[in-house]
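User: Paraquat-inducible membrane protein A, Pseudomonas prosekii:
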Amino acid sequence: MSTPPLASELDLCLCHSCGMACDTTGEPHECERCGAPLHRRKVNSLARTWAFMFTALAFYVPANLLPVMNTKMVGAGADSTIMSGVLEFWEAGAWDIALIIFIASIAVPGIKFVALTLLLVTVQRDSDWARKERAKLYRFVEVIGYWSMLDVIVVALVASLVKFQALADIEPRPGILFFGLVVVFTMFSAMSFDPRLIWDKSPHNEEVTDEVASH
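Assistant: Predicted structure for Paraquat-inducible membrane protein A:
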């Protein structure tokens, strides 16, 4: 059975912005559809992925320790962190909202941190262990990343639902800002990882140079 040619052998390059397969035989070397510069591989994929993930981890600590909202009921106010908010909703009988906040705020970021660390370590160790499963894991990380903002959305919805002027009021606190930064940087981390490194025999060779179509 003959092996199909590689995209590089056909002078084809996939645009990282819009996904279009572009011909790199001529000038200029930018996407014909969106105008983005063409790279055969994501530039400095491992270094950028580690950097974004460590940044997200740094923001994850204050996101869980600082209050995310302040609830005032008939003049009496109280700050709530993510976990205390989950417990309050659960005790109030709103188990569905409590479950959404817990999954979006605690479970999803934790899963992403563990999954990205596993992908990065195995690629750097040039491991051939479970390559197909790791590729599926990366796609799973990409999918769940877009649902991480559910917590921010829930806080906004709750604030609009219980805002009864003098009777009750809910205001966001700094914790929600840090959590939003966690979501953004974990998404950047997942987007920076090049899943083709999973299949490379020597992934470090792909990280050394910025493989532009040609200069």
